[in-house]
């Protein structure tokens, strides 16, 4: 049996409320049904809902009816957050669309039951273990979706900087630059490497390419066109690169920095995203994610961009 994180089983019921502690800094206002959960279980859930290593362990202690009730509460809290905090048109279907669909789930886990058995929450009557697993995974997915917003900012350039830092962390690139239509850098984030000379030279070269018509903005719906520049890594520069500093053997094999720029138009505003990296960074694996993130932040933090984008469109959470 998996034990609840901490000493939750011995906590005095009268000290428990259906509110998160100050320590949890809960993003979602989750109300749990006291008919399904004991007071110490409610406190455990609210205290650990934003603790990635402990919350999945806690979910293992809950039975299907509790998991189903928690999922319903999270869906309701997510809709409220979207409408009140993000000013987005949202309902439970909006959030459920971000969860793994039943067909993909069945294929992944090797479930042989007909799809009709899974609809309308009837699966638990046939395969309780499978239904419990799917519900548990849906809960973790919803937490993941909204957890990603905990460190976002309402200030446009700060929000993009935070997003760039996450991309650097996840994809091991050196830096990202967001420029205007002329190639002039507006937002620049690095991993701490001292590459100011490369940035200056790369931005100047990009500006010339735009002026000479060598650089092309990608048209909506078409594949993104990358404008690549490469700069040699000198001995002096190699000592400033955090990636090489942390892994000295790399300096024997990597001799160039790649400066890849892509131009795109969003809400009638031309922007250029440049990603700086060494070696084979497989940029196309996260290029679309990077551009989509910039677009999302623009819509969430820039009222003018939201208006230009068009009335009546709903934003994705």
Notable characteristics:
alpha+beta; 12 helices; 317 residues; 12% strand; 5-stranded antiparallel beta sheet; disordered N terminus
State the gist of this model.
By secondary structure, the chain is α+β, with helices and mostly antiparallel strands. It is built from 12 helices and 5 strands. A 5-stranded antiparallel sheet has the order 2-1-5-4-3, with helices on both faces.
Radius of gyration: 24 Å
How would a crystallographer describe the biggest sheet?
A: 5 strands, antiparallel
SSE order in H/E notation? HHHHHHHEEHEHHEEHH
Class derived from helix and strand content: alpha+beta
Low-confidence stretches: 1-24
Mean pLDDT: 83
Bin the strand percentage: 5-15%
Trace the largest sheet across and list its strands.
2-1-5-4-3
């Amino acid at each position: 049996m998996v034990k609840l994180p901490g000493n939750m089983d011995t906590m005095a019921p009268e000290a428990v409320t259906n509110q998160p502690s100050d320590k949890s800094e809960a993003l979602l206002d989750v109300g749990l049904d006291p008919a399904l959960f004991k007071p110490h279980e409610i406190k455990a859930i609210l205290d650990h809902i934003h603790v990635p290593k402990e919350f999945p362990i806690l979910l293992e202690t809950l039975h299907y009816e509790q998991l189903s009730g928690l999922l319903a509460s999270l869906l309701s809290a997510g809709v409220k957050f979207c409408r009140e905090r993000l000013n987005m048109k949202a309902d439970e279907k909006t959030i459920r669309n971000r969860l793994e669909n039943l067909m993909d789930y069945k294929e992944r886990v090797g479930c042989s039951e007909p799809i009709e058995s899974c609809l309308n929450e009837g699966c638990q009557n046939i395969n309780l273990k499978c239904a419990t697993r799917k519900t548990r995974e849906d809960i973790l997915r919803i937490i993941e979706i909204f957890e990603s917003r905990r460190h976002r900012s309402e200030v446009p350039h700060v929000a993009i900087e935070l997003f760039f830092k996450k991309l650097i962390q996840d994809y091991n690139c050196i830096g990202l630059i967001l420029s205007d239509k002329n190639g002039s850098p507006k937002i620049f984030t690095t991993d701490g490497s001292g590459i100011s000379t490369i940035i200056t030279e790369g931005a100047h070269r990009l500006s010339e390419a735009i002026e000479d018509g060598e650089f092309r903005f990608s048209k909506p719906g078409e594949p993104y066109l990358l404008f690549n520049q490469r700069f040699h890594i000198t001995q002096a520069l190699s000592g400033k690169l955090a990636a090489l500093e942390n892994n000295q053997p790399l300096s024997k094999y990597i001799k160039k920095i790649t400066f890849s720029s892509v131009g795109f138009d969003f809400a009638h505003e031309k922007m250029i995203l440049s990603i700086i990296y060494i070696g084979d960074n497989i940029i196309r694996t996260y290029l679309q994610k990077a551009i989509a993130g910039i677009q999302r932040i623009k819509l969430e933090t820039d009222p003018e961009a939201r208006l230009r984008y068009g009335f009546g469109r709903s934003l994705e959470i």
